[in-house]
Amino acid sequence: MQHFDPLAAHAYLQARPEAVLVDCRTEIEFLYVGHPVGAEHVAWQEVPDWEIDPAFSNKVKQLVGGDLTRPVLLICRSGQRSVNAGEALEATGFASVFNVTEGFEGPLDDQFHRGAMGGWRFHGLPWQQS
């Protein structure tokens, strides 16, 4: 798995239109916190139990039309869940998996808030909220 910071991930997506950005956060995070414009939502885990979706890899496989060579970029809140999701994709045969470091919201600051030190939104990249 390769790792891109949000700016490099955005540039890669612009240069490679066949690449897919998968937001693997929960549905609530995706809808209410916001998400990158054009991101597809496939949750790695979901509330209330936070159990890993055993069908995650199959759902992403459907998303890429079965083409396991198609580049898949994964983003979560801070770049941690997306690593686990990426490892699962690689274990099922995906050849080009990229983790977006910093995620959508970035790391915690000294006040335990996100969004002030990094992340997709922090860098002013295109995003939307439902």
From TrEMBL:
Entry-linked Pfam families: Rhodanese
Domain of life of the organism in this record?
Bacteria
All copies of the Rhodanese domain together span: 15-116
Q: Which Gene3D superfamilies match?
A: Rhodanese-like domain (3.40.250.10)
Which PROSITE patterns does the record cross-reference, listed alphabetically? RHODANESE_3 (PS50206)
Extract the PANTHER family matched here: RHODANESE-LIKE DOMAIN-CONTAINING PROTEIN 15, CHLOROPLASTIC (PTHR45431)
Instruction: Give the protein name, as stated in the record.
Output: Rhodanese-like domain-containing protein
